[in-house]
Write a structure and sequence with these properties.
486 residues; 12-stranded antiparallel beta sheet; 11 helices; 31% strand
Length: 486
C-alpha cells in the first residue's frame, strides 16, 4: 500500500513516496529541478515561519557546494534571560525546560538519530544560531557591556524537512526525515509544485536605511581601547584580544531584500539568512567554525590575518604577498591555531589532532585572509554538541587565553555582541555538523540594523592600522546598504 503525503506523482514535481513501512525508518529524497540560485525557493517557503537558508553562494564563492533551505521547525528552543524555553510547531505557548541548553538539544538529536550513508549532508536535524553571549552560560564573564539587543542567546529549530542543493553534481532534493509531520511535508510539496509555473523575482527597493551607519566608538575611543589592550598584553594578562566596533542605523522594509543585496557584493561560503518572526539574522561569513562528519572527522578553519583588495592588479598582488610574508599576522594565526588545537583536543581521540594547513591565502571580493586548518577525530564518547561546547566561542574571535580575553572584551566593548562572533550551525540527524563563525554578520532588531567589525590585537598592533582594517572588512556591506538611502 502506497500512502502519498505529497500528491500523485503525475501532478507533482517530486517523486513517488515509498511504502508506509519504509516511511517509518528511512530518510526520503525527492528529486527537484536543479537551481543555481535558491533565493526564489526561500522566498516561497518563508511563509511557513522560522525560515532559514544556509547558502554556499556558489558559483561566486569558490569554496561552497551545498545550499540548505527549510522552514516550519517541529520544535524551537530559545535561551532567554528568564531561562531555557521551547515549543512545538504551531504552538503559541512556550514551555520551560530545566535542562542545560545543549543537553536539551542533545535529547532532541538522540530522538531523531538515523544511520544514513548518502552524501547529502543534511537529513533533517537542527539549524540555528548560538550567540557569542551563550559563552556566558559556560564561563563566568563580567556583565559590564550593555545588553541592548534583546535576542535569545540561543535560537535553534528542529527541521525535519528541507530542500538541499548540491552545486557540484547539479542536483536538488526535498529531504524528509521519517518523523516529519505529514501536513508540513504536504505544505512544502504544494509550494514546490507551484514554483514550476512562477518566475523568480527580486525587489530590493523594499529595504531602505534611514541614515548612514554610525559606530558605537569614535576613532579616539577605539585607539584608547587598543592602548588598554597593549597594557594588558605587557602585564601578561593576555597575548591577543579580538576587539570590535559596532555600526548601526534604523531601517524600513524587509531584511531579506537587504541580505540579497549583500550576497551580491559579498558572496561567501557560509552565508545564511534566518527569519526570527519580526527580526532577522543576515550573515555573510567566510569562516568555518567547526565541522564534524558522521564518522567523527573534525575540522576547524580559523581566519587570522587580513589585507584589503585593490582594483589595481599589481597592488592587489602586493597586498596578498605582504599578508603571506607578515610575521605579525603569522604570529596571530599561530596563537589561535594553538588555542583551537587545545580546544578540540578536549573531545578528540588522543594523538588525532593535526594542523594540515598553515597560513593558506584565501581571497574574497573585498579582502585577502590568512587561513589555517586544524583536524582531529572525535572520541566515540563525545557528540558534535560536545565539540561545540568544548570550543565555544571560537578562539579566532576572542583571543588568548580565551577566558581572560572574553573578560577584557566585555570591559572595553560598549555593547554585547549578541549573535556576532557566535555561530550558525546545522547538526544533521546522521550526526554531521557544520558551523560558521558569525563574522560579517548583521542583526535586524526592532527596526535597527547592526553590523560589527573587529580584528586581533597583539603587542605590535598599530591602532591606526587596526582601525582601518575594521573598515576594510565591512565597508562593502555598509556602502551597499547605504546606497538605499534616498
Amino acid at each position: 500500500m502506497n500512502v502519498s503525503l505529497l500528491g500523485s506523482p503525475e501532478s507533482s514535481c517530486i517523486g513517488k513516496l515509498f511504502t508506509f513501512q519504509l516511511v517509518l525508518t528511512v530518510v526520503r529524497y525527492y528529486p527537484l529541478p536543479y537551481t543555481l540560485d535558491a533565493s526564489h525557493l526561500f522566498e516561497r517557503l518563508r511563509c511557513l515561519g522560522q525560515a532559514v537558508i544556509l547558502d554556499s553562494c556558489y558559483p561566486y564563492s569558490q569554496f561552497g557546494r551545498y545550499d540548505i533551505i527549510s522552514a516550519a521547525p517541529a520544535k524551537l528552543a530559545q535561551l532567554k534571560p528568564e531561562g531555557l524555553v521551547y515549543k512545538e510547531h504551531n504552538q503559541t505557548t512556550w514551555q520551560t525546560s530545566q535542562q542545560l541548553p545543549l543537553d536539551l538539544l542533545t535529547s532532541w538529536l538522540d530522538a531523531i538519530h538515523i544511520d544514513a550513508v548518502e552524501e547529502i549532508p543534511f537529513k533533517g536535524g537542527m539549524i540555528g544560531y548560538f550567540s557569542y553571549d551563550l559563552g556566558r552560560h559556560f564561563e563566568r564573564i563580567p556583565n559590564q557591556a550593555s545588553a541592548d539587543i534583546a535576542l535569545p542567546d540561543l535560537h535553534v529549530g528542529l527541521y525535519l524537512q528541507a530542500v538541499v542543493i548540491d552545486h557540484h553534481t547539479q542536483q536538488s532534493w526535498l529531504v524528509v526525515h521519517p518523523l516529519a509531520d505529514p501536513k508540513t511535508v504536504q505544505q512544502f510539496q504544494d509550494i514546490l509544485d507551484r514554483l514550476q509555473d512562477e518566475q523568480p523575482h527580486h525587489d530590493a527597493s523594499s529595504f531602505q536605511l534611514a541614515s548612514p551607519f554610525t559606530s558605537n566608538l569614535s576613532a579616539e575611543e577605539y585607539k584608547l581601547a587598543i592602548n588598554k589592550i597593549h597594557h594588558y598584553i605587557e602585564a601578561g594578562d593576555c597575548y591577543q584580544i579580538n576587539f570590535a566596533q559596532r555600526f548601526s542605523t534604523s531601517y524600513t522594509g524587509d531584511p531579506w531584500h537587504a541580505w540579497q543585496l549583500l550576497k551580491r557584493v559579498a558572496p561567501t561560503p557560509f552565508a545564511a539568512y534566518m527569519d526570527l518572526d519580526s527580526d532577522a539574522i543576515l550573515s555573510l561569513s567566510p569562516e568555518r567554525f567547526l565541522f564534524s562528519d558522521a564518522e567523527g572527522n573534525v575540522e576547524t578553519r580559523p581566519i587570522k590575518g587580513t589585507r584589503p583588495r585593490s582594483e589595481k592588479i599589481d597592488e592587489d598582488q602586493f597586498n596578498a604577498k605582504a599578508l603571506l610574508a607578515s610575521e605579525k599576522d603569522r604570529a596571530e594565526n599561530v596563537m589561535i591555531v594553538d588555542l583551537l588545537r587545545n580546544d578540540i583536543s578536549k573531545v578528540c581521540e588522543p594523538g588525532s589532532v593535526k594542523v594540515p594547513e598553515l597560513f593558506k591565502l584565501e581571497t574574497y571580493p573585498n579582502v585577502h585572509h590568512l587561513v589555517s586548518s586544524v583536524t582531529g577525530k572525535l572520541d566515540k564518547k563525545h557528540s558534535p554538541l560536545d565539540l561545540l561546547r568544548a570550543c565555544f566561542p571560537g578562539g579566532s574571535i576572542t583571543g588568548a587565553p580565551k577566558i581572560r580575553a572574553m573578560e577584557i572584551i566585555d570591559e572595553l566593548e560598549p555593547h554585547r555582541r549578541s549573535v556576532y562572533c557566535g555561530s550558525i550551525a546545522y547538526i544533521s540527524s546522521c550526526g554531521q555538523m557544520d558551523s560558521s563563525i558569525t563574522i560579517r554578520t548583521l542583526i535586524c532588531h526592532n527596526q535597527q540594523i547592526y553590523c560589527w567589525a573587529g580584528g586581533g590585537i597583539v603587542a605590535d598592533s598599530s591602532a591606526d592600522d587596526e582601525y582601518a582594517e575594521t573598515f576594510s572588512k565591512v565597508n562593502n556591506l555598509l556602502k551597499a546598504l547605504e546606497a538605499t538611502i534616498d
